[in-house]
Amino acid sequence: MTLVNSSAPTRSRDVAAAATLWLPVVAVVVTWLLWIDRLPSVLPRQWGSDGAVSSTIPTWAMAVIAFGVSLGAAILATGWLRERRAPNRRQVYVGLGFAAGLASSLWLMTAGITIDAGDAEPKLGAWLLLTFAACGYGALPYFLAQKWMPPVLPEPPTTENDNSKIDLSMPWSTLVTSPVIAVIGGGVVLGGAVAIFVLLTDAQQTLAASVMTGVVVGVILLVTLVFVQVRVTVDGRGLSVVSRLLGIRLKKVSLDQVESAFADTVSALQYGGWGYRLTSGRTAVVMRGGPALVVNLRRGNQFAVTVDEPHTAAALLNALRAANPSVR
Question: Where is the signal peptide (predicted)?
Answer without folding.
Answer: none
